[in-house]
Amino acid sequence: MIFTPEDNGERHHLAALYIALDADVQCNNDTVTDGLLARGYQGYALPSTLRPGRGDGVADVPELKLVRPVGQDPNDINQGGVGDCWLLAAISAIAEFDGAIAKIFRKTPDLLALPGNASNTYIVTLYDLPTMDLYGCKSVDIEIDERLCAQADGNGLLGARPSSTGELWVPYLEKAVAVHSGGWDKIDGGHLTHAWRILTGCPDQYTIRLEDAGLYRIYNNMEHCRRGEEAGLANCAKDGFNSYWPSDWPQVGGGGGSRLGLSSDQLFERMCAWEDAGYMMACYSLEDGAAKALGNGLVDVHAYTILDVCNDVDGGGGNTFDMVQVRNPWGRGEFQSGKWDDDGPGWDEFPLVKEVLKHEAEDDGAFWLDKHEFFKFFVVIYLCAKDMRRFADETNNQLPRQTK
Fold first, then answer.
1. What domains appear along the chain, each with residue ranges and CATH number?
2. The whole model's pTM is what?
3. With 189 labelled, which of 42, 314, 372, 381 sits at a CA distance of 20 to 30 A?
4. Is the distance from CB of 289 to CB of 310 less than 8 angstroms?
């Protein structure tokens, strides 16, 4: 509340702490959170935990919820102090598909009613990568309590933060992956494709790289399975088999053998086809130092989610544009020097594009680039060749579908 007394015109701000849940409830501890604390992070022990909504300074907001009834939002993801942009960018891509996050939490009883005032437990279903073959792998249920690890100095959360409106699914999903992988250090650095395997069980993950002669080539790391051997994967990306081989291109978009190289224009056409097929995509920024030197707001050696790919967007007067929407998993830090950044000149010059793309300038980490800008700054593309609409529909989850 802000008010201005009539006598001296001073402005005052009154703030109140909102505690959504009973602060005195004894938590029913799981068997895994204490292990995360004991292993610590980057050589430091983690001495304490924080519980959302119980007056600890984490998500002490009204209407606290694990998941909202109308679907999840990629903008719920806000990276914390762990170097897992690869994981959070992958999670952000999954959140684009209504029902997909609910499927991951599907074994949690009373999903929509959580968190409750009593001690809360969440069940997250992930996939066990050492069992993976060409057709998939076994699922595993990770049961976690409501405690979230604090930083080593006790000052705030170590990992991802709840959303500003009190959605909790991101930090609990991140915590479950840390448990599944063997600790916080085990998820400090990794690959988008590895995250998508853990989260969806899909073996068809690809890395597409810009190489000599300006052509993009595609790779995967399932060659062991194709030779009838074990995949050699581990739940921690650092521990398993990490070599990549040239791969055939997915049939969706045109197919092609392992020696096929694509120009950026040809790759963009396939990205449009993959977007239409419900596949997930992400990208990786320029090498260390390059983005910083350009001063354009991008982060060096950093994973970004590809939220949307649109071809031939009508700008009026015979002008069309090929566009890519990208998101920083930090929830901030956007491209700042392009034609289509939040304050870029393109939106005023071509207002029809702004209308078609429903663009709003917000400091949320999401931004648009045209095709040429995108391929200038992002030289690696990640692809999960699975129809995520079907993935979300494979279970009778408890959330109603949201129409976009």
1. 27-198 (no CATH), 205-389 (3.90.70.10)
2. 0.88
3. 372
4. no
